[in-house]
Specification:
Layout lengths: L8 E6 L22 E7 L3 E3 L2 E3 L8 E4 L5 E5 L2 E7 L3 E4 L2
Antiparallel strand pairs: 1-2, 1-7, 2-5, 3-4, 5-8, 6-7
Length: about 90
Amino acid sequence: MKLKPTEDRIIVKPAPAEEMSPGGIILQPNKKDRPTIGEVIAIGPGKMADGKMVKVALKPGDIVFYTKYTGSEISSEGIEYIIMKETDVLAVEG
């Protein structure tokens, strides 16, 4: 991937959308919820706070949980990603 996030932003590759509802109903493509879990692909260098550089606490490979409508969806080399700020991450798996 040729994208490099700036400041405290991260690039996340969302998990595939669910094909079936919890009740076992097969979902149509337009009815699938946007995933709220994904893998961190790239991180920015951090941001300045009180005159000091604060680095991003996440690292590539981390599995993160985030809110449904956070960040900006982008496509690079045919793959869908979400760019978001580190503070948009609700939890890290593990």
